[in-house]
């Protein structure tokens, strides 16, 4: 008799962002004359840059000509794209080789798939608050999860706690949802801790392009010893607006081995089994990101999102509300006023000023009493939302 995976029953009843969508839709249906400012889900609003679009069009044309047509691509990714990413790492001061880079259909997919490298009896450490997928994918796999709490007292950047141990450690810096980012000293503590206990860090670097402080690493491989303990998972979604295009990459160092098994070789074999490669067209589009003009254009878009962040930061500074994020991140993580819960504050903002954000409750116990704003929206709408927020909080 078929046995379904009953661990699905251990997940929260509804995925966080689906709940946000439902509540927002119910309000809009009941109030058709009121514009809603959606500052919640982290989807980008600016289109793909011109260099990427040109490359995508050319790649489509290539597929119409027998001389330039491409069928299956290498499971690990196009060599030219992998070499471009290798140069990108070198420029940021990290030594990563082409054969350590694996092109993927996006960071979200690899965050789940990478767990196939590890047995289910491994223990996972999640630093809370956390992106829900870290928890959900491990619940479905049946792994034991331990939580390391964080809060205002440490700027939502917890240090290793030697009372807790784990085999797999999730770290996201700059962080989603809090926007907080580890400096070199703080991240090096985690690298040393992982090497000390033999753990593997799954380092989510989806937001590295937003970093502006020199002491905040863009890659964990800027730190000595990281190539012996860390897998870095990256995305073009926020870097270059690929949320609807779906492309990313994962770095698995050659030096990363456990119990006689080399994780780079294992992941290469996994890709041979699990994928027939990523679309030629999409990889050609991504390659344009790493041209001088492509880099110029994507950074112009990032500047727009960072200006959006400044609107919220100014509003919260004026209202004297505690927050983190914004400086090195596209997310603002604020403390709810007057002891409100995240969901109470969500309803309050929607009702009073028609602004939508994300209750911190959805990111774990440590998120209760906090609220996340995304700064990927239209600039004029973001400025209006921030102005409304400031006036409301000053009342």
Tell me what you see in this structure.
A hairpin with a 2-residue loop joins strand 9 and strand 10. 38% of the residues lie in helices and 14% in strands. By secondary structure, the chain is an alpha/beta fold. Helix 10 (292-318) packs parallel to helix 12 (379-394). The model has no long low-confidence stretch (mean pLDDT 96). The strands form 4 sheets. A 7-stranded mixed β-sheet has the order 2-8-7-6-5-3-4, sandwiched between helices. Strands 11-12-15-14 form a 4-stranded antiparallel β-sheet.
Give the helices and strands, then pairings.
Layout: H1 16-30, E1 37-38, H2 50-62, H3 79-91, E2 101-104, H4 107-113, E3 123-127, H5 132-141, E4 144-148, E5 168-172, H6 184-197, E6 200-204, E7 230-235, H7 237-240, E8 248-251, E9 257-258, E10 261-262, H8 263-274, H9 280-287, H10 292-318, E11 323-325, E12 331-335, H11 342-353, E13 355-356, E14 358-359, E15 370-374, H12 379-394
Parallel strand pairs: 1-13, 3-4, 3-5, 5-6, 6-7
Antiparallel strand pairs: 2-8, 7-8, 9-10, 11-12, 12-15, 14-15
Helix pairs in contact: 2-9, 10-12
What gross morphology would you assign? globular
Helicity level, as a percent range?
25-40%
CATH-assigned fold name of the largest domain: Aspartate Aminotransferase, domain 2
Biggest sheet: strands, sense, closure? 7 strands, mixed
By CATH, the superfamily of the largest domain comes out as Type I PLP-dependent aspartate aminotransferase-like (Major domain)
**Overall pLDDT level:** 96
| Number of contiguous helices | 12
Low-confidence stretches: none
* Beta strand %: 5-15%
* Structural domain tally: 2
Assembly state of the chains shown: single chain
DSSP E strands, number: 15
SSE run: HEHHEHEHEEHEEHEEEHHHEEHEEEH
Structural class by secondary-structure content: alpha/beta
The CATH architecture of the largest domain can be given as 3-Layer(aba) Sandwich
Q: Give the C-alpha Rg.
A: 21 Å
């Amino acid at each position: 008799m078929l046995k379904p995976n009953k661990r699905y029953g251990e997940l929260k009843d509804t995925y966080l962002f689906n709940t946000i969508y439902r509540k927002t839709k119910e309000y809009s249906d009941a109030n058709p004359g009121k514009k809603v400012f959606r500052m919640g889900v982290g989807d980008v609003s600016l289109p793909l840059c011109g260099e990427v679009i040109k490359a995508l069009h050319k790649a489509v044309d290539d597929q119409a000509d027998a001389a330039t047509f491409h069928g299956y691509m290498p499971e690990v990714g196009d060599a030219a794209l992998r070499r471009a990413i290798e140069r990108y790492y070198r420029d940021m001061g990290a030594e990563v080789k082409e054969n350590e880079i694996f092109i993927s259909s996006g960071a979200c997919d690899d965050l789940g798939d990478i767990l196939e490298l590890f047995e289910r009896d491994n223990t996972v450490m999640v630093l809370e608050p956390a992106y829900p997928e870290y928890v959900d994918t491990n619940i479905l796999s049946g792994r034991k999860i331990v939580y390391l709490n964080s809060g205002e007292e440490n700027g939502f950047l917890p240090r290793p706690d030697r009372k807790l141990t784990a085999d797999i450690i999730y770290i996201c810096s700059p962080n989603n949802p809090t926007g907080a980012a580890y400096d070199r000293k703080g991240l090096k503590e985690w690298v040393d801790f992982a090497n000390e206990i033999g753990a593997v860090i799954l380092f989510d670097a989806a937001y590295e392009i937003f970093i502006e402080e020199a002491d905040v690493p863009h890659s964990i491989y800027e730190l000595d010893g990281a190539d012996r303990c860390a897998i870095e998972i990256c995305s073009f979604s926020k870097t270059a607006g690929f949320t609807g295009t779906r492309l990313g990459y994962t770095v698995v160092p050659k030096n990363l081995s456990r119990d006689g098994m080399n994780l780079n070789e294992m992941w290469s074999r996994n890709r041979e089994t699990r994928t027939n490669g990523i679309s030629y067209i999409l990889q050609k589009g991504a390659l344009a990101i790493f041209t001088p003009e492509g880099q110029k254009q994507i950074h112009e878009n990032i500047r727009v999102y960072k200006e959006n962040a400044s609107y919220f930061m100014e509003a919260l500074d004026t209202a004297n509300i505690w927050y983190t994020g914004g400086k090195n991140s596209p997310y603002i993580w604020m403390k709810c006023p007057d002891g409100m819960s995240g969901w109470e504050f969500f309803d309050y903002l929607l009702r009073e000023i028609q602004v939508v954000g994300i209750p911190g409750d959805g990111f774990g116990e440590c998120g209760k009493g906090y609220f996340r704003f995304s700064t990927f929206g239209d600039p004029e709408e973001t400025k209006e939302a921030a102005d409304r927020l400031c006036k409301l909080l000053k009342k």
